[in-house]
Amino acid sequence: MARWNRKTMQQVMDHIEEDASGCLLWTHRISTQGYGRVNVDRVSWGAHRLFHVLFIGPIPDGYEVDHLCRVRNCVNPEHLEAVTPEENRRRSDCYSAVNARKTVAPCGHEYDGCNSDGKRICVGCTREYNTEWVRKKRAQTPPVSRIRETCKRGHPYSPKLNANGVRWCPTCQAESKRAYAERQKAKRA
Predict the structure, then answer these.
(1) In terms of pTM, does the model score above 0.70?
(2) Are the C-beta atoms of 122 and 111 separated by less than 8 Å?
(3) Does 15 reside within a domain?
(4) In terms of residue numbers, what domain contains 97?
């Protein structure tokens, strides 16, 4: 990193304004994401990362600098903390982090379970929904005998099972044998 003399520090400090909440706002170059940017020895740095290194210490490998004040262009060392990426996302105001902090479902029940995808669910609402769904299905589907008494063509099945333990239709089997014999006879002729 470059040597920081009084002139360099004064140039950096000229790009900082203090607001009413105590944030030191970087005003020089701001990225499209809202973070301050600064060049040091022809290397572009996040201004908040540079201030963390200068006034707090090095940022551990794999860590990010989190703004405790939630202001992205703030460079106040008191508002900066090195944290893991997971902790930084958990503290953020993004949609997924806000939902992860919720403990009560929209219905008012506590979130008390996870489904197979790892998503939080309200067990009470899920149970109510499944019970209602089953009740509706049973109401619209007439009960039918699960054991068929006839084959696809309407012939009655044999009361005995075949060698494979499967029910069979003697009429269809006889027709199949008769049709096979006729095909063999036609081949010979």
Answers:
(1) no
(2) yes
(3) yes
(4) 6-101
